[in-house]
C-alpha cells in the first residue's frame, strides 16, 4: 500500500530559492506507508533495505548540480582567550540528490561541520554555498529564509520543545517561514501520519518513546519540504530496529529527490549512503572531490 502526499517542489529547476514565497510549484511525491517501509528485524545492525535508486556515478565522481559547497572552511573556538582550531581546511561538495554519510571519531568536528552547513554557526574562514548562494553575501533575513525553507535539521537528541505537542512541534518552523499556499496544520498532520504517529499527535515529547520523538523531529524537518536534510546521528539514540525504520525513511526521502547528509558512527548505517567522507582531527581524510 502506498500513501501519496502532495509535496511542494522546492528543488524545481530554475527560480531562485529565495523567491519561494511567491511561487507555488507542485508535484506529487510518492512516499510509501510505514507498512512497506519498516522492516522487522531481529538481527542487530542488519537493515533489510533495498536501494531502488543510486545517484549516477562515473566511478569516483557523482554527477549533478552541487547543492552544498564547503570551500576552504576553517572553524576555531575561543576558549580562555586561546584560539582552539576545530576544523582546519574543509572542502566538500554535495550534489543534488546525493546521500552522503559523514563518519569519524568522537570530537573530530562532524557536528561542527554539520552546524556550519545548516547555518547554525558561522565559519571562522572560508565559504559555505547552498544552492548557489553564498551565505556571506546574504542578509540575515535571507539566511533565515534559506535555512527555514531549504534545510531540515535532525538532531541526535531530537530537540523537541517539551511543552508543545507533537503536532505543535512539527508546525513550529512554519511560524517563522512558510511556503505560500501551504496549510501548515494539515501538512503537519499528513507528515505525522506518514511517520506512523497519527495516534500520537497530541502527545508531548515526554509522553513519547525515543523512536517516536525522532519521527516527530523528522516530520518537523520536513514541514517546509526542504531540498536538503541534515541529520546528526539520527539513529544514535535508537535501538537497531527503530534505527532501521528511520534509515528506511531516509532512503525513501532520498529516492524522492532530497539531498541528505547524515552523520553516523555505524558503518552498517553508512553503507546505505552514496558516499562516505571521513572526518578526523578536523580534516576530511578521503574526499574524492
Ligand atoms: N561551542 C564550542 N566551544 C568550544 N569548543 C567546542 C564547541 N563546540 C564543539 N567544540 C569542540 O569541538 C570539537 C569537535 O566537536 P564536535 O561536536 O564537532 O565533534 P563530533 O565529531 O561531532 O563528536 P561526536 O562524535 O562525539 O558527536 C570538540 O573537541 C569539542 O570540544
Ligand atoms: Mg557530534
Automatic annotation (TrEMBL):
<keyword id="KW-0547">Nucleotide-binding</keyword>
<dbReference type="InterPro" id="IPR003593">
    <property type="entry name" value="AAA+_ATPase"/>
</dbReference>
<dbReference type="InterPro" id="IPR027417">
    <property type="entry name" value="P-loop_NTPase"/>
</dbReference>
<feature type="domain" description="ABC transporter">
    <location>
        <begin position="68"/>
        <end position="289"/>
    </location>
</feature>
<protein>
    <submittedName>
        <fullName>ABC transporter ATP-binding protein</fullName>
    </submittedName>
</protein>
<dbReference type="InterPro" id="IPR003439">
    <property type="entry name" value="ABC_transporter-like_ATP-bd"/>
</dbReference>
<dbReference type="Pfam" id="PF00005">
    <property type="entry name" value="ABC_tran"/>
</dbReference>
<dbReference type="InterPro" id="IPR015854">
    <property type="entry name" value="ABC_transpr_LolD-like"/>
</dbReference>
<dbReference type="GO" id="GO:0005524">
    <property type="term" value="F:ATP binding"/>
</dbReference>
<keyword id="KW-0813">Transport</keyword>
<dbReference type="InterPro" id="IPR017911">
    <property type="entry name" value="MacB-like_ATP-bd"/>
</dbReference>
<keyword id="KW-0067">ATP-binding</keyword>
<dbReference type="InterPro" id="IPR017871">
    <property type="entry name" value="ABC_transporter-like_CS"/>
</dbReference>
Amino acid at each position: 500500500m502506498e500513501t501519496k502526499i502532495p509535496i511542494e517542489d522546492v528543488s524545481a529547476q530554475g527560480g531562485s530559492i529565495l523567491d519561494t514565497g511567491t511561487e507555488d510549484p507542485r508535484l506529487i511525491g510518492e512516499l510509501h506507508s510505514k507498512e512497506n517501509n519498516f522492516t522487522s528485524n531481529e538481527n542487530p545492525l542488519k537493515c533489510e533495505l533495498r536501494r531502488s535508486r543510486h545517484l549516477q556515478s562515473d566511478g569516483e565522481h557523482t554527477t549533478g548540480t552541487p547543492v552544498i559547497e564547503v570551500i576552504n572552511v576553517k572553524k576555531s573556538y575561543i576558549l580562555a582567550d586561546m584560539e582552539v582550531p576545530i576544523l582546519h581546511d574543509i572542502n566538500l561538495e554535495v550534489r543534488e540528490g546525493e546521500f552522503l554519510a559523514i563518519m569519524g571519531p568522537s570530537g573530530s568536528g562532524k557536528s561542527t561541520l554539520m552546524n556550519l552547513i545548516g547555518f547554525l554557526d558561522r565559519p571562522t574562514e572560508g565559504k559555505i554555498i547552498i544552492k548557489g548562494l553564498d551565505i556571506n553575501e546574504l542578509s540575515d533575513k535571507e539566511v533565515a529564509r534559506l535555512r527555514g525553507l531549504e534545510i531540515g535539521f535532525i538532531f541526535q537528541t531530537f530537540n523537541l520543545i517539551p511543552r508543545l505537542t507533537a503536532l505543535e512541534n512539527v508546525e513550529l518552523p512554519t511560524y517563522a517561514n512558510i511556503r505560500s499556499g501551504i496549510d501548515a496544520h494539515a501538512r503537519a498532520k499528513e507528515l505525522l501520519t506518514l511517520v506512523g504517529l497519527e495516534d500520537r499527535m497530541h502527545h508531548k515529547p515526554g509522553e513519547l518513546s525515543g523512536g517516536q520523538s525522532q519521527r516527530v523531529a523528522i516530520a518537523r524537518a520536513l514541514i517546509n519540504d526542504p531540498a536538503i536534510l541534515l541529520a546528526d546521528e539520527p539513529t544514535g539514540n535508537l535501538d537497531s530496529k527503530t534505527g532501521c525504520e528511520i534509515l528506511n525513511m531516509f532512503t525513501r526521502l532520498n529516492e524522492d529527490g532530497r539531498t541528505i547528509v547524515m552523520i553516523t558512527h555505524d558503518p552498517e548505517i553508512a553503507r546505505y549512503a552514496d558516499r562516505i567522507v571521513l572526518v578526523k582531527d578536523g580534516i576530511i581524510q578521503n574526499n574524492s572531490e
